[in-house]
């Protein structure tokens, strides 16, 4: 069975021109969605800074907002590299994650519990971005877009680094403070 799957995958590896066009279209759509997502996130991260209490959480959100703007710049370079004007397309999963974060902020009191909620939401968002950039990188490799791959790798590495730093902050004290909060 494994041999049959590998043979099937290998027979598709060469791809027809229609397959490449379909993948190119999917790549471009996904890129537009990530561009939209990054633009929305840059604003969202800046807007929630006053909602968190921990200096470390504020620092991480500020870093993420700055990094997100750099991601927008890189995506614009990707569009330029593939010969398209930068365009964005609404991405409902990211819109939902941002909405969930805003709802949790509204439902929690200022302090460690809200900080824990914000970190959890930002990590969900970051994991979505990691998946999206990994997929875009895979598409770019298949489409032989070497310059694009390098830019996507930078965005992917940034997201992984931010995720790790958020985990460190949460586990260092935010989650414990939130768990020990008296009601």
Describe, in plain words, how this protein is organized in 3D.
By secondary structure, the chain is an all-alpha fold. It has one domain: Ferritin. 83% of the residues lie in helices and 0% in strands. It is built from 6 helices and no strands. The protein has helices at residues 2-13, 17-47, 55-81, 92-107, 112-142, 146-179. α3 (55-81) runs antiparallel to α6 (146-179), α4 (92-107) runs antiparallel to α5 (112-142) and α5 packs antiparallel against α6 (146-179). It is elongated and about 65 Å long. The relative contact order is 0.14.
Order of helices and strands: HHHHHH
Assign the CATH architecture: Up-down Bundle
Strand residue percentage: under 5%
Tell me the structural class. mainly alpha
Counted up, domains total 1
How would you name the CATH homologous superfamily? Ferritin, core subunit, four-helix bundle
E-strand count: 0
Binned, the helix content reads over 70%
Mass-distribution shape: elongated
N- and C-termini, Cα separation:
57 Å
Q: Indicate the CATH class.
A: Mainly Alpha
Q: Write down the CATH topology.
A: Ferritin
Give Rg in angstroms: 19 Å
What count of helical segments does DSSP give? 6
Q: Which whole number gives the mean pLDDT?
A: 91
Q: Which stretches are poorly predicted, pLDDT < 50 over at least 5 residues?
A: 1-13
């Amino acid at each position: 069975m494994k041999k049959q799957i590998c043979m099937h995958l290998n027979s598709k590896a060469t791809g027809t021109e229609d397959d490449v066009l379909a993948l190119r279209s999917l790549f471009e759509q996904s890129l537009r969605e990530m561009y939209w997502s990054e633009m929305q996130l840059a604003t969202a991260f800046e807007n929630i800074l006053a909602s968190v209490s921990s200096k470390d959480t504020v620092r991480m959100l500020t870093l993420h907002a700055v990094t997100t703007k750099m991601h927008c710049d890189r995506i614009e370079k990707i569009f330029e590299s593939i010969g398209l004007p930068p365009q964005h397309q609404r991405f409902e999963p990211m819109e939902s994650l941002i909405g969930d974060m805003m709802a949790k902020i509204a439902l929690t009191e200022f302090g460690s519990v809200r900080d824990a909620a914000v970190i959890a939401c930002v990590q969900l968002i970051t994991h979505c971005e990691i998946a999206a950039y990994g997929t875009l990188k895979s598409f770019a490799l298949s489409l032989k877009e070497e310059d694009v791959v390098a830019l996507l790798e930078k965005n992917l590495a940034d997201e992984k680094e931010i995720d790790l730093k958020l985990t460190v902050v949460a586990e260092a004290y935010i989650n414990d403070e939130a768990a020990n909060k008296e009601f």
